[in-house]
Amino acid sequence: MSLHRIRTHPEYVENCFGCKIGDLQLNAGDATRDIPDKQWQHKLANYKKARADGIQPGGTSEAHVDAAYKASELLGKAYQAESMPKAHKINKRVAEVVNTGILNKP
Prior knowledge:
The chain is mostly helical. The chain folds into two domains: 1-32, no CATH class; 36-106, no CATH class. It has five helices and no strands. The chain has helices at residues 3-7, 17-22, 37-52, 62-75, 92-100. Helix 3 (37-52) runs parallel beside helix 4. 12% of the residues are buried. The mean pLDDT is 82.
């Protein structure tokens, strides 16, 4: 119960401004997020662009997206996180093995 209702009147009064103010709840909005909304949207835009290019990064962070693009360059095809080794571990040698299909054989 708000201090106004304790001091003035204990029940809610319809047209009382103090009663209306006492019932307001505030939302912290972007203040609870670690990064500002503009930066958040930029990171998601990078991930969305990668998905549009056919690349599936291992996560939405900028490091994952950048690693997926580099892996795609080495592989010569779009990187797929769910079926390929981790993007940051792909080098020329690993790319050759992945492209030969040895990893996909039972």
